[in-house]
Amino acid sequence: MRFLEFENRKTAYCLLVIALVFIILAVPFKDGRSTYAHHELGRDLGVERSIDRGVVIELGPESSLGGFHFGPIYYYLIYPFVKLMDFAPYSLAIASGFFMLLTIIGTFFVTTELFKNEILALFASGLMTVSILTFQLTKYGSNPNLVPFFSLVLFYSLKKLADNNRSYFFASALAVSFAVATQLHAVPLITMPLVLIAAAVATDIKNVPFRNILIFLVINIVIYLPYLRHEIQNGFSNSLALFSLVGGGLSWNIYLGHLVQFLEFFFDPFLSLHPFFSSLDFGGVWLRTLSICLLLVVPGVLYFNLRNRKYLHVGDIVLDASTKRIFLLWFLIPSIVFFLPLGLRADFRYYYFFILFPIVYIFLARGIFSLLKAGLHALVIYIFAAFVILQLCQIYIYIDLVTSLT
To answer: What pLDDT digit, counting tens, does each position of 132-156 carry?
Structure first.
């Protein structure tokens, strides 16, 4: 497949190194500890033991937004990992790490295909690998942690179908990723249908082959079958509870809080600021001082580089109209959903934004690539060095914090 080919053998070696670095960083704590809510570990392992006894699980984890449950697909996806490791506490973290590894590798190939540039793709995957946000997600298992991978598959499938709407393979990939992602968390559940509608309208819904619609419906019915069985037998009580998300009076303070948390998520790959692990709080004065010092050096490096530009051969970026449209849908529709009156909760945790996880690193890599094209090679080197230093410091703080937990 052209999708899995490399233009340069060195690129393949670099991607292998990135994968190996991730695997080393992804080694979980033996007792399954993390800074995330630890009670979910016992809950999920209990469900996995039920599956092992032959019990058909029809409902997934309960949403924190309301009194409804997601679909059960998360429990079935992690079961092979849990079973293979004999229900060890760290088995859920291994499952998260596996899907994150797929996300990192998938981000490389998807970015390469969409932007036609392997160096840009290496930037995106490399940044994702060493990021403190990625590191945290490999230390525990939770249903939203699988959202980045299936979001990547869904939007890439949309792009491929926009170019060739008669592809059986990508129609199936779209159906599977949709059925799984919408069972993992509330944001994909609300966002993905809107994305499909917008994509169909943008590409003229009349041109969508009936065969693809049939493939989509059949695959979704099969994957949703346990959930549908429960809903039919219980008068769709769980689905009706989904409407508890909508409503509430207008509160500008809460909307402002959502905006702050939304913007904060784009800083989390650099500095972890969310409540489960605020590195600036746990790192204290020395990490704050280091962060400020790293930032203060930037103007000096930029001044030097502007006087000593060096233009490296890194190729060009090719971005066609359908790719631009897909990225616009990927960013814009979830962003709008975040500000809907969904129960008007003030605490949108960082995992609510995981649908945007891959493109955060792609956009970051795109910005760094632009600096490189402008001849600012020294600034790019400094940015990467500062980024790695900052991540290693936060990883050290995280490990020290978790090992001190009782």
So the answer is: 999 999 999 999 999 999 999 999 9
Residue 78 CA to residue 96 CA, distance in Å, equals 8
CA contacts within 13 A on the Cβ side of 294: 20
| Residue in the structure block whose two tokens are 């859920």 | 92
CB atoms within 10 A of CB 192: 23
- Tokens at residue 218, please? 């059949």
Q: Are 146 and 137 in contact (CB under 8 A)?
A: no
Rounded Cα–Cα distance for residues 108 and 120 (Å): 9
Q: Per the structure block, which two tokens stand in for 269? A: 């790959």
Could you give the count of Cα atoms lying within 13 Å of 34 in the half-sphere of its Cβ? 28
Q: Is the dihedral of CA 256, 261, 262, 266 positive or negative?
A: positive
Helix (H, G, I), strand (E, B) or coil at 69: strand
Please tell me what DSSP assigns to residue 62: B
Tally helices (H) and strands (E) across the chain.
17, 0
Region at 309 (left for phi over 0; alpha for psi -120 to 50; beta for the rest): beta
